[in-house]
Amino acid sequence: MLTTFANAGELGACDVCVVGAGPVGIALALACEQRGLSVLLLESGREEQDAFAASLTAGHRTDELRHAATDIAICRGLGGTSRWWGGRCVPLDDVDFARRPHAASTIWPIPHHEISCWYDAAAHFFGIGPARFTTAPAAQALGDIRTDQLERWTPDIDAGRRHRTHLANSRLITVVMGATVTELLLSEDGRRVVALVVGDANRTCRIAPRRTVLACGGLETTRLLLWAQQKRPGLFGGGSGPLGRFYMGHASGKIADIVLADPTSVSAYDFFMDDGAYARRRFTLAPEAQLRERLFNVAFWLDNPPFHQAAHRNGVLSLVWMALAVPPIGRRLVAEAIRIIHLGPRPYRWLSHLRNVMMSPLATLRTIASIVQARLLTKPRRPGFLIRSFEGRYALHFLAEQTPLRESRVTLSDRKDALGVPFLDIDLRYSEADARSVMRAHEILDQALRSAGYGRLEYRVPPEARLASILQQAKDGFHQIGTTRMGLTPDDSVVDGNCRVHGIENLYVSSSSVFASSSQANPTFAAVALALRLAAHLAQHVRAGEIGVAA
């Protein structure tokens, strides 16, 4: 059932209360329903954009060059930030769970197979076909470089839209929109959540769920826990404890072009259809090489030159840039965060882009028409496009693991939102070790390409400037990882291997914020897999309680 806080009346008892109706919260609710559990799914936003809900998410960034603004990184509403994401689904890797001497602070308390066994169910949730993330290698004899790993793309990015009909017709799930959880009320001994304070602009109420799962995104989940800690300073290890620390995302950017010896081989690295969903190969670093070289995880893919750099002299890229630069048009084409990245720094070079378009206007318009057809008029939509280069030259995009630092953290601000909850102060930090790992991974890829006669890298910056270039491009805020990390003890983690908050028997977290490491993967797919695992655990917990067995 779908309703709003204003119309909901008294919120009844439920087996599980899930806070947040993004992809993780929706997946968790549906999986609990499959196991016969009743679910109250509380969502701060609504089906349409809600200005009041959006105003509750402001945060101060210590370094605005490192972290995206919260108004483009966090979306309140049915479907959450899946309304804005690109749809890329990527699993974690076995090496992320290995004991890595050079990454001692990235230890998970569970093995990878505890999550990967849920990848098929997560793939079904996203509609990406089977959870098939490997294929035939695109190139042989590349040594430490793999070309057999895939990313898959959901055909419908908005999880709320995709699952709305099911949620509306469910007898076990009650979705309440416009319902913002503002406080967790704990028992005297602090070992149970006895009530949640829920409100909107007009009223507040208390509800008393048996079990609560915070699934409102990495930062907002952490914010609620920090607010509880401020009222009870001993919670979660106190101010020096792990809550809010180890904040991670990914290092991402471009420092080199890849030049393929055979320009026709590019087709192996473009988007292709696989069982009803788009997929794409990536270059990745073999786990043996990561361990031998003491490197962090990383993936590469072929990309177009940056749209905003008119020096590419490509009419198609310039016309796309011009469309994105007109806000009413650009915001209909891509999410605002992606639009801002593609626009690049000011001043904008409109005349240079116009010259590029006018060099071959008919060919440009023909290509644009095919892109519009694939992106906007065809189902499933094509996730992106790769303009062919006759010389086999493409930008090489990297997405790399960020190491967890205690000093990379979020804390509560002195400022509060309209419902009285403190905003966040956000201090996301990268390390030189992150950048050096990316540099070395590029060198290994270049050596492998040259040795096999497959191609080469050509760097955009000289050797002495590469470290600085990687750190200059390092920015996230969308992949909110690590701030409620999973671990064995409350000394170094916030939740245990079952995502239960240490010391609080009926409070759980379902979010990428529980990840102990960031891997090379966008976190949403694995976060949903973890949510499905949690649903199975909760069902077992409920059944054990019904027959009087300790769970």
Automatic annotation (TrEMBL):
Its cofactor is FAD. One of its GO terms (molecular function) is oxidoreductase activity, acting on CH-OH group of donors. The keyword Nucleotide-binding does not apply. InterPro entries: FAD/NAD-bd_sf, GMC_OxRtase_C, P2Ox-like. Residues 404-531 form the Glucose-methanol-choline oxidoreductase C-terminal domain. Coiled coil: none annotated. It comes from the Bacteria. Keywords: FAD, Flavoprotein, Oxidoreductase. Belongs to the GMC oxidoreductase family. This is GMC oxidoreductase. It comes from Bradyrhizobium cajani.
